[in-house]
């Protein structure tokens, strides 16, 4: 689609980038069939093609209202449409750009701005997050059932080995996962230690930037990325092999640092290096000899592949392969391409839509009666666990030589 830029956008980086991204769309509509929000509400404006049109209209008319912003808010940024699109449309990048523009063009009412500010601060500040979590866990026994299920139970932890291997990979602990499910990276460190690799977080590295960036606070998101690059750089120069992530949402962001910071002369080169070194833990393990891991598999596992793992990182097959070769029986599932409704802060900001998507996902995962559900992203894990009787775990915990429960 050709975009005739409004004079306001003709000489802006956003205008040129938006027109370039939209030009890939040939308006065929194939993406509608795999868009969870369009399947939920068959309104063209809640489809990828409709949202592309809304951003195109903003760039051509030089203005947009709250309705456009609301239809962008309803998008999960799951990128299922990218996997479907025969034309290579980079919808995720366009949605981020459109959201950034709409935050300025159609300012939110105060209560929405306050909520988003609070979410950004709490989720990206481990001290605030851990305080909120511990208070919730303390009150858990007296909370009404609907609230209680939203507070994750505290699980035990097992010790992680000290650094002693010759091989070193940098590990991104992230923000939410480091507080709510630290068992994931504990397990990852024990698994990699068994393979002769140290996985060490770098002092000063924290949130990957996705929380701020996807909530339209682009400058804060870019600052998160710059801070992580600064934190990792000494170890990169000292020979660290890779930067590994276990939360696929974080991995999908780190792998695009080079693109996010391409126009920053101070960081562009280092950001591109970081992107080239970013690896999801599944990708790391497929290149190692896993025969040294003791085979303990007994469970029947339903694998939920997060959107970021399949549509952004294209690494869903690797996890399936690893679990199957470790002896796990993977149960039959359906509609694997559809989002579970977690999608970062979507499960908080678009609660009702998120619950409908989760009900559909749990039915799709549970039909073959699994013993547990395995996933690859903390958001999906917590969201599914709220409404699921079986344990929901990060898949790396299934390979843990020292499982916690
Ligand atoms: S499938 Fe791709 S080219 Fe077709 S309408 Fe959707 S985004 Fe545009
Ligand atoms: S990212 Fe997901 S929810 Fe958003 S338009 Fe694409 S398929 Fe639909």
Structure description:
With 405 residues, this protein is of the alpha/beta class. 50% of the residues lie in helices and 7% in strands. It contains 22 helices and eight strands. The protein has a four-stranded parallel beta sheet. Strands 6-5-7-8 form a four-stranded parallel beta sheet, with helices on both faces. Helix 1 packs antiparallel against helix 3, helix 1 packs across helix 6 (91-105) and helix 7 packs across helix 8. The radius of gyration is 21 Å and the shape is globular. The mean pLDDT is 95. It binds iron/sulfur cluster (2 copies).
Query: What's the order of the H and E elements?
Result: HHHHHHHHHEHHEHHEHHHEHEHHEHHEHE
Overall spatial form: globular
Biggest sheet: strand arrangement: 2-1-3-4
> Which strand-content bin applies to the residues?
5-15%
Entry summary:
With about 400 residues, the chain is α/β, with parallel strands linked by helices. Helix content is about 50%, strand content about 5%. The chain has helices spanning about 15-20, 35-40, 50-60, 65-75, 80-85, 90-105, 110-125, 125-140, 145-150, 175-180, 180-195, 210-215, 220-235, 250-255, 255-260, 270-275, 280-285, 305-310, 315-325, 345-350, 350-365, 380-385, and strands spanning about 165-170, 195-200, 245, 280, 300-305, 330, 370-375, 390-395.
Keywords:
405 residues; alpha/beta; four-stranded parallel β-sheet; 22 helices; binds iron/sulfur cluster
Topology summary:
Elements (H helix, E strand, L loop, with lengths): L12 H10 L13 H5 L7 H14 L4 H8 L6 H5 L6 H15 L4 H15 L1 H14 L5 H4 L18 E5 L4 H5 L1 H13 L2 E4 L9 H5 L3 H20 L5 E3 L2 H7 L2 H4 L7 H10 E3 H6 L13 E4 L3 H6 L3 H10 L3 E2 L15 H4 L1 H16 L5 E4 L2 H8 L6 E3 L11
Parallel strand pairs: 1-2, 1-3, 3-4, 5-6, 5-7, 7-8
Bound molecules: iron/sulfur cluster (2 copies).
The site of one iron/sulfur cluster has 13 residues, from helix 2, helix 3 and helix 5.
């Amino acid at each position: 689609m050709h975009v005739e830029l409004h004079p306001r956008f003709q000489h802006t980086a956003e205008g040129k980038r938006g027109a370039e991204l939209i030009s890939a769309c040939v308006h065929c509509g194939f993406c509608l069939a795999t868009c969870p929000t369009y399947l939920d509400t068959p309104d063209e404006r809640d489809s990828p093609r409709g949202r592309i049109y809304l951003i195109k209209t903003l760039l051509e008319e030089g203005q947009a209202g709250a309705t456009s912003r609301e239809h962008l808010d309803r998008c999960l940024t799951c990128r299922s449409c990218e996997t479907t699109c025969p034309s290579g449309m980079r919808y995720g990048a366009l949605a981020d750009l459109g959201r950034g523009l709409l935050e300025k063009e159609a300012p939110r009412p105060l209560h929405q701005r306050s909520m988003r500010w609070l979410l950004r601060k709490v989720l990206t500040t481990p001290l605030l997050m851990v305080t909120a979590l511990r208070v919730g866990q303390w009150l858990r026994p007296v909370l009404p059932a609907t609230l209680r299920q939203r507070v994750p139970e505290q699980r035990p932890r097992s010790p992680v080995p000290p650094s002693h291997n010759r091989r070193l990979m940098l590990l991104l602990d992230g923000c939410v996962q480091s507080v709510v499910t630290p068992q994931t990276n504990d397990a990852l460190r024990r698994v990699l230690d068994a393979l002769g690799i140290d996985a060490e977080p770098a002092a000063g590295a924290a949130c990957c930037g996705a929380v701020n960036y996807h909530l339209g606070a682009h400058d804060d998101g870019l600052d998160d990325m710059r801070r992580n690059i600064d934190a990792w750089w000494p170890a990169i120069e000292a020979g660290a092999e890779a930067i590994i992530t276990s939360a696929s949402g974080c991995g999908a962001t780190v792998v695009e640092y080079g693109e996010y910071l391409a126009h920053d002369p101070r960081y562009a080169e280092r950001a591109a290096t970081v992107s080239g070194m970013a690896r999801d833990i599944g990708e790391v393990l497929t290149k190692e000899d896993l025969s040294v891991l003791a085979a303990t598999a007994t469970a029947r596992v339903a694998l939920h592949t997060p959107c970021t793992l399949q549509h952004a990182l294209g690494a869903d097959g690797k996890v399936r392969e690893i679990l199957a070769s470790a002896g796990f029986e993977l149960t039959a599932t359906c509609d694997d391409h559809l989002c579970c409704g977690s999608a970062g802060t979507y499960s908080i900001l678009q609660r009702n839509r998120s619950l409908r998507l989760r009900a559909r996902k749990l039915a799709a995962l549970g039909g073959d009666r699994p013993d547990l559900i395995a996933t690859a992203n903390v958001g999906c894990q917590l969201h599914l666990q709220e409404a699921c009787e079986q344990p929901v775990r990060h898949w790396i915990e299934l390979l843990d030589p020292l499982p916690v429960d």
